[in-house]
Amino acid sequence: MQQDRPSGESTYTEWRHKVRDVLTPLQNSLVQRFQETRLFRIYSSTLVPGLLQTEGYAAAVLRAVVAELQEELPFDDSAEAARARVERSRVIHEPERRFVLLVEEAVLYHQLGNMQTMADQLNYLLTANDLPSISLGVIPTARERAHLPQETFHVYDDGLVSVELVSAEVKITQAPEVALYLKAFEQLNSMAVYGAEARALILKALEGLR
To answer: Which of 37, 84, 92, 119 could form a cystine bridge with 27, CB 3.0-4.6 A?
Structure first.
């Protein structure tokens, strides 16, 4: 299969092609996209979104990627890639940007790295939740759902959606398809809790590590 497979104005790129060399260039390849975006809307059902990952958590995530793609990668650069991921995430401190991030509550319990790594990550979520540019929503597990969990996706402003599949990343720019993801985001957002309620769920997960 080719690296990019156009479908109208959508692009399908297999992960094994995106990380054909090493992981760090993939992290750096997103810097321009981040710089051009003013409104980030991110939903994750599996991991803490990259923009809010600590270096330790990011390294654990990327080590898992290396383990899955070990036959594709010439060497393990997960530590360097984690530093690059954290560096590009400094965009959350830049003015005139807004970040709306939704995670399923289960994300808070998926342990990446050791217990200290998870504790540091959860504590960082508490800190990030206080930033004026960030709205962090948590969709509680113990609540009747009106909408099903979805694959992880990112919406950059109103013009680009990036969907993370097991085998590939799909980039969508067609307006009708983008609109579907915007609708899905709002539906998921309607089930999320914010502020003190989100903080309580993060603290509950943190307490579970002790």
So the answer is: 84
